[in-house]
Protein 1
Amino acid sequence: MNCGARQQENADIPNAELADRIGLSPSACLRRVAKLRQSGVIRKTVAVIDPTQVGRPLGAVINLEFHRHGNQYRQDFIRKVRKLDAVRQCHVVTGEVTGVMILHMRDMAEYTALCETLFDADDNIVWYRTYIITETLKDEFGPAI
């Protein structure tokens, strides 16, 4: 059994249960988890919220292309992206596009406002293409371990 993967799926189990699953004493298990946090293997512990339950049912994947790729242009874009609650993930990637974003929004009005703020008003964005999510087949977080 891969207890690491199980714990990644449910970080809410008590330390004693985790210790029992991996064959350690509770104190040794606490020390191991503390080391994983300190070393950065465990970046953070979060609760996964259903977007539809909190009024953000409109999901989208957006691909975009920068005109210029210098650090200052990227930093300007990063500052804007980090301020927007609807943007849940944003990745700079290789290939035919510069970036890929995952968004969860209230409605099309929020989408339109976001596009005006983030893309239309930025002369460094050559183009962006939006794909509205119609069905989610798999939604996992973190790497497979």
Protein 2
Amino acid sequence: MYVPADEGVTKWVAGDVYTVKATAANTGGAFGFIDATVPPGRGSDPHAHGSESEAFFLLSGELEFLDGDRRFTARQGDFVFVPPGIRHSFFNRGVHSARMVFMYSPGGPEGMFLDAGDDPRAGESAPAWGPEKIAEVLPVLTRYQIDVLPNLD
């Protein structure tokens, strides 16, 4: 399998930009791999995965992570691993976009980005999702065994 830098399926999800580079379907179920750009003030809500681990590697910028009940800031070159069933999220509190790659093992949850994400529109930035879009996406999250959890704040 070879995916050039400018290829993959790009989707907008909740204000972030995700490019799915590999899926469970094309890795024999082994993993899903995603390249992400997280603008300032954006990120994921706390959630947990039913049976998949998730691993993150920061390419640039910094993101605040929630891992279980612990918060920390990951910076360029840092690696974060989250086992199945553990509450986690990330958020960009900085002034510049952060970029990371992450993967699911086994693959599968990357399908959520493909099924629920919005197609990019030239000349525009990815918009935040309002309550209507979030309600629309909840059944997709359930299908991928992604449980949205409350914030600790």
